[in-house]
Amino acid sequence: MARGTIRYWAAARDAAGTPEEPYDAVTLAEALAAARRQRGDEPRFASVLSVCSYIVDGKPVGTRDLETVLLADGGTVEVLPPFAGG
User: Fold this and answer.
1) How far, in Å, CA of 85 to CA of 68, rounded?
2) 3-class secondary structure, 3
3) CATH (residue range 2-80)
4) Does the predicted model carry a pTM greater than 0.90?
5) 8 Å CB contact between 15 and 36
6) Residue 42: pLDDT band by 50, 70, 90 thresholds?
């Protein structure tokens, strides 16, 4: 089990109600599932997460299955919703 920090940006921060929170999980999928459960599976939060991009320890997750993205102890997950502009 790894422990680290999830950081939420823009609409994800608003939906989460916090700029960051700790994770205690092996995979990115587990960390995000725990974050959803913590909020009672609040539909808006789950909806925002479904369209977000993720960066784990400075590396984009891209289209990889979140179950295969391993988290490191002391690591950071950045949760980035889509945004407009340039």
Assistant:
1) 31
2) strand
3) 3.10.20.30
4) yes
5) no
6) confident
Residue 22: enclosing H or E segment and its boundaries?
strand 20-25
Burial of 27 (0-12, 13-18, 19+ CB in 10 A): middle
Contacts of 80 (CB under 8 A, 6+ apart): 9, 10, 12, 52, 53, 54, 55
CB distance 66 to 29 below 8 Å: yes
Query: Alpha helix (H) ranges present in 1-42?
Result: 11-16, 28-38
Q: Give yes or no for residue 24 having a pLDDT over 60.
A: yes
Beta-carbon count within 10 A of 2 CB: 16
**Residues written for the chain:** 86
Q: Which residues pair with 24 in a beta bridge?
A: 3
Rounded Cα distance between 45 and 12, Å, is 7
Q: What is the DSSP letter of 70?
A: B
